[in-house]
TrEMBL record:
Any one Pfam family match given in the protein's UniProt record, by short name: Terminase_3
Start and end residues of each Phage terminase large subunit N-terminal domain: 32-161
Lineage: Bacteria, Bacillati, Bacillota, Bacilli, Bacillales
Protein name (Swiss-Prot/TrEMBL): PBSX family phage terminase large subunit
Amino acid sequence: MKMNKAPVNVQPTINFREVIGKGYNRFWHSKNFYRVCKGSRGSKKSKTTVINLTKRLMQYSWANILVVRRFSNTLKQSCYTDFKWAVNRLKVKNLFKFNESMPEITYTPTGQKILFRGLDDPLKITSITVDVGILCWAWFEEAYEIEDQHKFETVVESIRGKYDSPDFFK
């Protein structure tokens, strides 16, 4: 499947250095398979991650995101709300549709999804899929809460999709 970048006309000009602040340059530009943010409470880990993922979703029209926490009942008050904050901060709220009951977020220009799941039952994640593009990125919020490596690996195996874009990295 040929994967193109999203149309440029839907993305506003944003100074990400101004939005994020200092201290996350290596994280922001990393092309490693895994990226880990460490820091104390209030150190911008979640805010930097959610802005990075929002930008990347808008940049790559075939990309979709899975957001994971140990318990599904903690997602709406944390990561889902972080995405609401990010699209407001980036001034692109009009480009996103928020489904409160799922929870799920759709990038309306392309139909890409941001899905939210808990690891309460990791087998529910194994068959997860999207309508548009591929599920290619996962954000493990509070990853230290995941007590079993097998649960983590189940998610990683579920998001590996075929891709052929030279500038793509997971």
